[in-house]
Amino acid sequence: MCQRDRLIFFFFAFGAALAGQPSLTIYNQRFAVVRDLIPLDLKQGINTIRFSGATVHLEPDSVILRDPSGGTALKILEQNFRAEPISEALLLSLFEGKEIEFEETVGASGQKRLIRGRIIRSGYVPHSAAMGQYGYQYAAYQNAYSQSGGGQPIVEVEGKLYFHLPGRPVFPALGDDTILKPALDWRIHVDRAAKLNAELSYVSGGMSWKADYNLVAPEQGDTLDIVGWVTMDNQSGKDFENARIKLVAGDVSKIQPGRDARDQMMMSRAEVAGGIAPSVTERSFDEYHLYTLPLATTLHDRETKQVEFLRAAKVASQRLYVYDGARIGTRYAGWDAATIRTQPEYGTESNPKVWVMREFLNSEANGLGIALPKGRARFYRRDQGGQLEFTGENNIDHTPRNEKVRVYTGDAFDIVGERRRTNFQIDHNQRWVEESFEIKLRNHKREAAEVRVVEHLYRWSNWRLISQTLPFTKKDSQAIEFVARLQPEQEQALSYTVHYSW
User: Fold this and answer.
1) Which of 279, 355, 482, 496 could potentially form a cystine with 322 if both were Cys, beta carbons 3.0 to 4.6 Å apart?
2) How far apart (Å, rounded) are the C-alpha atoms in residues 112 and 168?
3) 164-183 pLDDT, tens per residue?
4) Spatial separation of the C-alpha atoms in residues 101 and 171, rounded to whole Å
5) pTM of the entire predicted model
6) Do the Cβ atoms of 486 and 428 come closer than 8 Å?
7) Which residues lie below 8 Å from residue 275, measured CB to CB, with a gap of 6+?
């Protein structure tokens, strides 16, 4: 069975868990769509409902509450979201102007006694989320207010003012207007009494996922064994128990604050087939790619969880050496093309490093053939004792099926490049420039090596080569490539002359 067929099989075999579980669709842009079922017992008319199972980073205007069966029309007359859990500072602000008890330590004996004090000012400063929402001036005012003493409590005890808390505050029992967790409060109207499991969907920040790849080459040769991991991070302020999780890879347009949630994910129901390990499934979804975890899992708040989503063996790859010999200094940053074309020193500095690249085709015939989400690729090679040694890493972008993956892994130690300009002529009246370069490559390896030499014809878009010692390939409108093949301990030189006109 091929890799794609296995993925399709596992999608139907392990695609989802039982109905009623929370579900998450996490995007690799640091947000998620959360879906949960809420049991509601509604009387005819207006009902007041509180839901305390939301995340801290819920986007209130993305909330959708509906009857998934379509039997009851839920009309939300009012919605309030309180995202700041109860704390001492917040409770002090709620009791401003009122008396509470404070536990005071008396003398060296450490005995405790209760005294009463009236909170004149709590010292509570609004949370940083409001500062981010209302801009620089609001944040500056709040910070100035705090630093000028506004963040310092004032308590009156027996007619005297204390600019600190006289002891540890002891608060009365919590009232209905306080919260221990982020809460959604609704006023819901229904035209008749109903009991139902309402579906709640919303967009939340505080969650992300990323892909990582480990690629192992044997002691000799360039085939690769590839293992891919997805790492999920939950900083949402909420635990998700036994949740069904999907991951979306792609560049989804997301405006802050978020738009309405559109949780269009399809969940299927199946049981795990005995004898076959559950596997992450992948399929196209709209213009993106969707990865479904095979089993329900618990994702705790402030937890990082990893799941293997890809395993492939003997993937054919190719090691490439690329020499891009022009070193452009930072002093030329911002120069326009008209200035560059007449500046004699531009592009004459040499870069001696030869890049090492690893390339492979993401195809079914090559043991892959699934959409690869962007992430970090780490390369290893086995040494003579069979141990793995790290040989480089870099990031890969989202890569569709049947596209090549090319990754820069470092600079070659035993292959050296040298680039120098041998001639420069300019005729301002006739508006042309001719420039000649010589490129030398030295191979100190014990085996032959092929080096791709990239030259950027940066002086102007209208150019032609009037001489060259090796054939070249035009890569784009202002880049060409030569291929130099070097035997062990061989030096090879190539040269060319380019004519620019404007």
Assistant:
1) 355
2) 10
3) 999 999 988 766 555 667 88
4) 7
5) 0.70
6) no
7) none
